Amino acid sequence: MGCKLGNVIDAVQEIVPSEFVEDWDNSGMQLGDPDWQVERIWVALDPLPEVISAACQRDVDLVITHHPLIFKPLTAIDVSTLEGFVIQQALDHHVAIYSAHTNLDRIKDGVNDVLASRVGLCNTTSLSSDVVSGNPGFGRIGNLVRPTPLAVLINNLKQVLDIAHVKVSGNLDMIVKTVAVCSGSGSSMVRSFFDAGADVFISGDLKYHDARNFEFDRKALIDIGHFASEHLIVESFAERLNRHFHSKGLILAVEPYMFEKDPFVII
What we know:
The chain is α/β, with parallel strands linked by helices. 33% of the residues lie in helices and 24% in strands.
């Protein structure tokens, strides 16, 4: 039977509250009408043209993405641009788009918790001190089950994240006990890492000068890439939404869209 888009969004926000969205972020409904009927939902990382085109072909009513479609104010809707093309496709086929970005990063069992779990961390806490209303902040810090050489940790990461390469700064023989992670772009969390006293920082989009600071302090960083640090939430969040909708008696089909690829390749 499905239900109205507005009711679906209300249910989604019970998991990812809007009050946990950062001021600079644009999470929430990107496109749609609260009165549109929703039965089938996809979860994806990015509102890419290929994702929305596939959703249009498969009679998907709502695409929930991690990254927002509209991040900065639009001065025009030019259909030759990525945003304009997606807007045109979605409107033509009544496909709504909703994004859960920084709120999904910070909530319990959100992107950072899923990443920390995949890394194998236990006894995790928030890495950032910016905790809103008792909810976890950004990043996580925790302990490995047993002290592990950095080289072994790297190989384990590549297996559990299904990636062929990572960028590393640090002594491969160092023994790692405490690890901090941050999904997405982690440079803004480097100071929190040093304050927390972890051995290794795992994130994406880390910078040259970050690596120099890690060298000086005899710490290690592992840049797994933005995509790999976040794409793992797609399947997890879809499963969580299915359980949540079922518990509320909402007849909705939620599926993860698993065909996105990292835009960067190493040659």
